[in-house]
Amino acid sequence: TRANCALAFTPPASLRSHVSFTVVVPGDPIVAHVGSTVILPCWISPPENAEALEIRWYRRDQFNNPIVFYRDGKIQEVQECFRNRSSLALRSDQSGGLKDGDVSLRLEKLTFQDEDSFHCEVSGDRKYDSKVVDLKITGESKTTIQSKPY
């Protein structure tokens, strides 16, 4: 029937190409001092409004335990150890924020345990991409001296 033909219609490549994007992050690790605040830059290219997209920041193999999970226009989940010290933020003063495709992560009160690889994943209708930002923490580390039993 004619309705079945409409369902099987595949848009030409010229129409499909504008629905995809690439997640972009810096090539080098982000270095921050213990106790400070850092922005892990992440954005989509070409720029598009990310407010209707799903944004997930997570560590290594912790996809199901995201640091921040944004969907339906608001943050849905925040990992316990990042509660009250993580948010989506602007990567620079010139950024247009989510409306411009900026999905950067702000982390406050950094600890040495925060040093890790962070995945920035953005997904939407028929589109998805993910990249990794490495965070290195510098500063005074309190080494634990273990006494040997005699």
UniProtKB/TrEMBL annotation:
It holds the Pfam family V-set. GO terms for molecular function: signaling receptor binding. Keywords: Immunoglobulin domain, Membrane. PROSITE patterns: IG_LIKE (PS50835). GO terms for cellular component: external side of plasma membrane. Residues 11-138 form the Ig-like domain. It is found in: Membrane. One of its GO terms (biological process) is regulation of cytokine production. InterPro entries: Ig-like_dom, Ig-like_dom_sf, Ig-like_fold, Ig_sub, Ig_V-set, IgSF_BTN/MOG. PANTHER family: BG-LIKE ANTIGEN 1-RELATED (PTHR24100:SF149), BUTYROPHILIN (PTHR24100). This is Ig-like domain-containing protein.
